[in-house]
Amino acid sequence: MVPLFMTKSIRYSCCFLLAAGLLSSCQLPKPLLHPSARPMPVSFAGRSDTLGIASQNWRTFFADPHLVQLIDTALGGNLDLRIATQRIEAARASFDYSRGFLAPQVNAVASAGVDRYGQNTLNGVGNFDTNLSDNIRGNLVIPNPTPDYFLGARSTWEIDIWGKLRNRRKAAYLRFLSSEKGRHAVITAMVAEVAHYYYQLLALDGELEIIQKNINYQQNALGLVRIQKEAGRVTELAVQQFSAQLLNTRSRQGQVRQQIVENENQLNRLLGRYPQPIARGSSLQDRELPGQVLTGIPAQMLVRRPDIQQAELDLQAFNVDVDVARAEFLPSLNLTAYLGLNAFRTATLFNPGSIAAGLLSGLSAPVLNRRFVKANYRQSVAQSRESLYRYQQTILTGFSEVTTSLRGVENYRSVAELQAQEVAVLQTAVTTSNDLFASGYASYLEVITAQRSVLEAELALISTKQAQFLAITDLYRALGGGWY
């Protein structure tokens, strides 16, 4: 028999240990501090535009009915965009799921079980003595084995005294907003990619026109050299040289046609449809180069670029996760309740005397498993810092893309102007060489060289025009345009 004073001592010791455990578990880590951000530039390459091209809707910016129709088709059929939409639905479901933890969890329960108590157990002795009572008769006699039937409701509820559950809901909501920004980023990239393929097709159309025009020049020159051979003014070698050049130009024509097929198929895949011809406007040969473009200020880019907004929301969500992990060190208050019909005989289950109810509340805090809580906290801190660096990296990428595309628009414009002058000079040289060759003042090699040079110059000019159209499209995307 344990003396009474020893029993009280044991109780005090247990209470002291429990209190010490709760107090030790309440020691919170220090709040997370992020390093200070580096200052951002106040302008792009010294530009001070107040309003940039990203403020324009993509329908207004591109202003090409064929391109607008292709983008509309992509918005309806692109599979990447549909995947992004499902990510939004998943994030919305996660947010709704997190909201449920703030309310009591109530479950309808229908259960049945059986226990066989030993004669030397507390329940076995108690039931035996109870059955000997004069008040226990008929259905009140406790059988052994003892069935247990319950029909009713059970509830559990963690009271959010530290804001842990509310922060989980907040983090889920931030991730829901982030998924919407992710969909906008997919739209922006898709609009730019459709425009890329479209301008590549227009450039290839221009190459076909240039090649066909040069084929006509070379056919005329071949006819002329054949006449001069019959007159004895040139040899068969001249005819062969002109014929070889014409064959080479025609082979280029076939290669460009194959590139058109490949680009059309890539664009159709982006639109979410099977291969078919792409309706488009005039080639880049007939289009004016874009003039000076406005960029706006960097602050506008931060607001408009969906990937930057998404990275910022992710950073906020991970910071909230750190607060949730810190709250795991604190005790949690839980309430457990039940209400229903409980009996050990089915015949008496639905009697009024079988109505049972119970309520239990308690504080629980991690003691022996604190290393798991600490590990979860360290993981949350690492993810938060990683998210910060990703956010900063996204901003740096945005500035780099804007500057590169802006310089590309300006540099390609000056290159195209010089190449246009070169083409004009070489076209005059072709006419001059033909006249001199017909008069006997120039050799056939000079004619071939002039024709080859003008072909290469015209193809280089169309390539530069394509590069500038792509650069201004990339600039529009980099500034955050194209998702609305």
From TrEMBL:
One of its GO terms (cellular component) is plasma membrane. This is TolC family protein. It comes from Spirosoma agri. It is a lipid-anchor. The lineage of its organism: Bacteria, Pseudomonadati, Bacteroidota, Cytophagia, Cytophagales. GO terms for molecular function: efflux transmembrane transporter activity. Its main location: membrane. The keyword Isomerase does not apply. Belongs to the outer membrane factor (OMF) (TC 1.B.17) family. It holds the Pfam family OEP. It is found in: Cell membrane. Residues 1-19 form the signal peptide. NCBIfam families: outer_NodT. Keywords: Lipoprotein, Membrane, Palmitate, Signal, Transmembrane, Transmembrane beta strand.
